[in-house]
Amino acid sequence: MNIHFILHEKFEVPGAYLKWAQKRGHHISSTKIYEEEELPETVDDIDFLIVMGEPQSPDEDRQVFPYYDPKAEIALIQKAIDADIYIVGVCLGAQLLSVAYGGKYEHSPEREIGVFPLTLTDEGLADEGLADEYIKDFGSTLNTGHWLGDMPGLSDKAVVLATSKGCPRQIICFSPKHYAFQAHLEFDLEAIDLLIAADGEEHLYQQNKQLDFVKTPEQLHNHDYSQMNKKLFAFLDSLTQI
Fold it and tell me: Is 205 within 8 Å of 109 (Cβ atoms)?
């Protein structure tokens, strides 16, 4: 399987998504937006598109981030939708996927940084539905990583599969092959270190004092991310029918 990653920032690494692809022996390619690499013109050679996160938004002003062209990314995602290849959008990628489906991304009610439980919705727990076989291993609740301020929009047929106390749209299914993950099941200590360095430890301490759903750098470091990574592997295996 040919898996293509869209990577927006050097400090927003694919973590367990990349490790899964490597362990399953897939062919891996990527577009590093932060290095001004060009997006693929077509999805003809892509079986699975994974669009990762960044601090920007789907309608970001290119004067601030000249290397980031959300319209071009949305157009590529729409090609992937039309081709019905596998798509997972993570954080910003989730929001871009929702826009490609005609939704409108929004600010989340709360900023979330840390590890907090997801709660599956009735649709996520249903015995029959778009995604029951793919997320059945998540259980009714699952502790996952979070680093968000925005959330995906909804299309007419979108199904919200999981929520958190701070964000009502954590996992969304747009079709049997297309998923938006606002949550970060891919986090590991390498990813956390890079994000802390980019955000700044002092900034995190200040947010921790002011906001209900922001953890300190120590709390971020002291978590075992392996369980959520295993759940992500199981989801990806089930999605791609390995």
Answer: no
The whole-model pTM stands at 0.95
Q: Give 153-210 pLDDT, tens digit per residue.
A: 999 999 999 999 999 999 999 999 999 999 999 999 999 999 999 999 999 999 999 9
So what's the pLDDT on residue 134?
87
Q: Rounded to whole angstroms, how far apart are CA atoms 120 and 54? A: 25
Instruction: Report the distance separating Cα 181 and Cα 91, nearest Å.
Output: 6
Domain boundaries, the chain: 2-239
CA distance 239 to 134: 6
pLDDT by residue (tens digit) across 151-162?
Answer: 999 999 999 999
Chosen CATH of 2-239 out of 3.40.50.880, 3.20.20.70, 1.20.1730.10, 1.10.230.10: 3.40.50.880
Question: What is the dihedral sign for C-alpha 139, 141, 145, 147?
Answer: positive
Whether residue 89 is predicted with pLDDT greater than 90 in this model: the reply is yes
Q: How far is CA 37 from CA 9, 34, 126, in A?
A: 12, 8, 41
